[in-house]
Amino acid sequence: MFGGGGGGLNPRKMEQMMKQMGIDVDDIDAEEVIIRTAEHDLVFTDPEVTKMDARGQETYQVIGTPDERAAGSAGELEAGDGDNDSGSSVDEDDVDLVVTRTGASEEKARRALEDNDGDLAATVAELE
Questions:
Q1: What DSSP character marks residue 66?
Q2: What element of type H or E holds 57?
Q3: Are 47 and 33 within 8 A, CB to CB?
Q4: Same domain assignment for residues 55 and 34
Q5: Which of 47, 89, 99, 121 could bridge across to 77 with cysteines, CB 3.0–4.6 Å?
Q6: Number of independent structural domains in the chain
């Protein structure tokens, strides 16, 4: 179909053709990918992840064998994961965003985010 022969296109030639079509391909050094569904979580540990950007439309390809886990049991942030010293599961970027938007202190923003289960809109509405 493409390129004839048993092996298909040369990977370098394929990359060159994709670049000409405006498609950028990047490998992502992922440690874990979690696909969360209502029934269960699919957890890919040490997967191969490729990101393709075709004129602003991003597509991710995940290669690996997932473990199936109970819904919501995978990927919970652990206390002391290095993001902050408080053991909070709130993302520091979200805290900064709430502080900037509302003028609240970091501590108050973090507490409000935790109370709202990380919902930025609800947190900002509460603090404004």
A1: P
A2: strand 57-63
A3: yes
A4: yes
A5: 89
A6: 2
Provide φ and ψ at 91, rounded to 5°.
Answer: -70, 130
SS3 64: coil
Residues of the domain holding 19: 11-70
What are the tens digits of pLDDT across the range 99-117? Answer: 888 998 888 988 888 888 8
| Predicted confidence (pLDDT) per residue in 38-90, tens digit | 899 999 999 999 999 988 899 999 999 999 988 877 655 443 344 444 455 77
List the structure tokens of 66.
């997932």
For residue 20, give the CATH number of its domain: 2.20.70
Cα 18 from Cα 1, distance rounded (Å): 17
Q: Do the domain assignments include residue 46?
A: yes
> Cβ atoms within 10 A of the Cβ of 20, count?
8
78: which DSSP letter?
A: P
Check whether residue 36 and residue 81 sit in a common domain.
no
Q: Would you say the pTM of this structure is higher than 0.85?
A: no
Residues 86 and 66 in one domain: no
The amino acid at 71 = A
The whole-angstrom separation of Cα 12 and Cα 9 is 8
